[in-house]
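If you are new to this repository, start here. Below is one unmodified record pulled from the training split, so you can see the exact layout before writing a loader.
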Amino acid sequence: MSTAKTPTAKLIAGIIIAILAASAILAGASTTLIGDPQEPETPQGGTGDTGPTDETGPTGPTGETSTTSATGPTGPTGETSTTSATGPQPPQGKQTPYVPDYDSGWIDIIDKISEYGFTVTHISDTQALSQSNSWGDFTTWIASFVDNFNIKMLVHTGDIVENYYVNSEWEIANSSMGVLADSGIPYCWCAGNHEGFTVEEYIGNGYACFNASTFETQDYWLDSLNDMSTAVNFTHGGHKFIIVDVYWHGDASVISWLTTILESNTDSNIIVATHSYVSITGGYNCVGGGDTWELAFKDLLDNYSNVIFTLSGHDPGVYTRVDGNREEMLFNYQPEARVARFLTFDVENEKVYVYTYDQLNGELLTEECNKFSFDVDLL
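And here is the target side for that same chain:
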């Protein structure tokens, strides 16, 4: 793949930053975000179409990495974090997963993974799960696939909790995501609108599983910004991959952070995730928030042909659209949200197979919008 990196990229990023900064001044606070945390809850079906490691790893921004202390909440290991989000410790080994009862659909997936490569798993908009114990059941189920699916990374695209200020919801989220960490499944996350409208409102970094300092010594960890945007990396078959998970309607500092990663890693295959991007109608707009941020975000990504696809949530439902050589996928099954996307990479043939499973109802979803494949041009 040739990497489209032109002077226009920095110019557009500069314009975006200027616009966001001006908007922030008008709003009275540079970190204030736009949007309504209340979202429709009924999902809709949209129509739409580690191997060798390189010596030189991906480059993160030279800016600050959040090291906010996390005190009080209980982590997945049962210990209480006391300083710098040191508990739970990153897993030293992984639990032995149970073997699911596979139907023919799962056998098809496993055959592809064992023959070709690896899987990236996507979940989103788990806010309702933070009010019950079902989230832990969901992540325990996902953890059962760690070996058979060769899960390289799980991506959470925000709206982690329903109410950003309710500690009991963060405690459930923390213990549930800790199941993944203890099972050897690395993950990244971004804050959605339900996690607060400003950096000051975000209390997720008071919980070890949502504080970057818990994971920053891990090989896969690349960078974070305010513990609300995260970036990870891995390799497979000589190919370098980066996933950048971007805070909902991030301000100028967030766009600058993302741009630095894009500019510094033009030799990597990049997946960009964010909370709100593609809408259920196939456009670029946010429920309750207009389309200004989403369109500016698209213009920035258009300058980097090594961004192979995007992942997002927020708008309830599923939709996949193609923009040039970039697949862009909306995935959000709230309120239950016990539905996972498995994106299985056939590295040799440069293809991604997408499977969607409803864990609550025990059903592999086979509609065209939930089971499909697309080509990728890997570096």
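Two things worth knowing about this chain: The chain has a mean pLDDT of 79. The CA atoms of residues 328 and 379 lie 19 Å apart.
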